[in-house]
Specification:
By secondary structure, this protein is an alpha/beta fold. It is 45% helix and 12% strand. The protein has 19 helices and nine strands. Strand 4 (142-149), helix 5 (163-166) and strand 5 (175-182) form a beta-alpha-beta unit. Belongs to the peptidase S33 family.
Length: 458
């Protein structure tokens, strides 16, 4: 028996090793996604014709909004000594609403929001709204197509400052971007699905098909927040279309990263090999980091489980919509600003800027349909596809901003093995809007590297 024990132990070790490897390895890629017709009517009942689009809100909608702003119920006073720690302080909300009622001029802002060429196209039954900005042709400047995606609680308003930068050559760069920036289905002027199942993977297919209809077989992609998640799916599923992936929210959803976090919680020294020393305080102590994340992601759980219930409340009240969204512009830009009476809202934005974004949600009544993206992406069926566990095969650049979600170097390589550029900056979650020059330069630098690599590989 003693002689057989080493053999039995060896078998057990091999079996456990196999099980651990199976657990850590990404699952097989799912079969090709079905091109589902997400809109009303029958398959193919609407052709993907490009139509010019202009934002034009009726007086009726504006009068209804003004009435609701004038006749809201009394706001519950904040607790003594509390700024934004319980969510948006109602004293600050009152200041925003007073500005909204008396100083915000939608007709002027409507002209501003119409400054870039806008279009509608129907893809798989969905009317998709997008901005398409082409750079001027210049000798020696290569024009590169770029699909640019926003997230929640953002909209295309996030890109109005960065678009003029991306579409012109910067400094000694010999490239400029032809930018296609759509509203995600269910956001803004893009229609939502009429049937369940339109998650990040399915939207990746919709946008890949949209780009094909616009004449782009290959293109670069950039996104933050949910835009990054959708484009990560696109890069995994359709690497022949994606020339390079740039994100200001590279995130990792692998079992190995979970194990790393677990062990470093009890043995902080364990993390020395995958976290730079200067980043140590961004994830340690681990439990404090975990509870910070938990505190700031309650919205995610609500939207991923009961989007329609929440949507009724938010869609009914402009004050509720403003509070729900603006709270994220405090905590997402700098969580320390929760201790400020003004929430830091005007450090990088104006009330007019912020209300532009809120108005896009209000006039399109898209609160509920925007929330549904979470329930369609963070469920068993969608997560069961295993796409977020797949390594991204295309060249990748990650721009990490100090107050946004953080993933350490040694975790990023699990999902992004082809990182050509990894940068760190001050700033927060809404980088394209907060620091357009910084983000644009990072995009230019990254694509220049990717283009050079493609050239050298030929």
């Amino acid at each position: 028996m003693a002689k057989k024990l080493p053999i039995l132990l060896g078998i057990v070790v091999i079996f456990l090793g196999y099980k651990i490897k199976s657990f850590l390895d990404p699952p097989p890629l799912p079969p090709s996604l079905e091109e589902i017709w997400w809109g009303p009517g029958n398959i193919g009942s609407v052709k993907p014709t490009i139509q010019p689009f202009t934002i034009n809100v009726s007086d009726k909608v504006l009068k209804d909004l003004q009435w609701r702003l004038e006749n809201h119920r009394s706001l519950t006073p904040p607790l003594e000594g509390i700024q934004q720690q319980y969510g948006m302080n109602t004293k600050l909300l009152k200041n925003v609403v007073d500005f909204w009622k008396s100083k915000y001029n939608w007709r002027e802002r409507e002209k501003y929001l119409n400054k870039f060429p806008q279009f509608l196209i129907n893809i798989q039954g969905l009317d998709l709204h997008y901005i398409h900005v082409k750079p001027k042709l210049q000798d020696g400047v290569k024009i590169i197509p770029l699909l640019l995606l926003h997230g929640w609680p953002g909209s295309l308003r996030e890109f109005y400052d960065i678009l003029p930068i991306l579409t012109r050559p910067q400094n000694d760069k010999k490239i400029a971007f032809e930018v296609i920036a759509p509203h995600i289905p269910g956001y803004g002027f893009s229609k939502g699905a009429v049937k369940p199942g339109l998650g990040a993977a399915q939207i990746a297919l919709v946008f890949k098909n949209m780009m094909k209809e616009l004449g782009f077989k290959k293109f670069y992609v950039q996104g933050g927040d949910f835009g990054s998640i959708i484009l990560q799916h696109m890069s995994v599923l359709y690497p022949d279309s994606v020339m390079g992936f740039h994100s200001n929210m590279c995130h990792v959803f692998t079992p190995l990263s979970t194990l790393k976090n677990f062990f470093s919680q009890y043995y902080p020294s364990f993390s020395w090999w995958y976290i730079r020393p200067e980043h140590y305080k961004r994830v340690h102590p681990t439990m404090e980091y975990f509870f910070k994340r938990l505190r700031e992601t309650g919205y995610l759980h609500l939207q991923a489980t009961k989007p329609d219930t929440l949507g009724v409340a938010i869609n009914e009240s402009p004050l509720g919509l403003a509070a729900y969204i603006l709270e994220k512009f405090t905590s997402g830009t700098n969580p320390n600003w929760q201790l400020r009476e003004d929430g830091g809202l005007t450090e990088f934005f104006t009330y007019t800027d912020l209300l532009d974004n809120i108005m896009i949600y209000w006039i399109t009544e898209s609160a509920t349909t925007s929330f549904r993206l979470y329930s369609e992406s963070f469920n068993r069926d969608h997560m069961g596809l295993g796409i977020t566990r797949q390594p991204v095969p295309v060249p990748t650049a990650c721009a990490r901003f100090k107050y946004d979600f953080f993933t350490a170097d040694g975790m990023l390589t699990e999902t992004y093995p082809n990182i050509v550029q990894l940068s760190d900056y001050d700033g927060g979650h809404f980088a394209a809007w907060q620091l357009p020059q910084v983000l644009a330069k990072d995009i230019f630098d990254a694509v220049e590297i990717m283009e050079s690599n493609y050239k050298n590989a030929r």
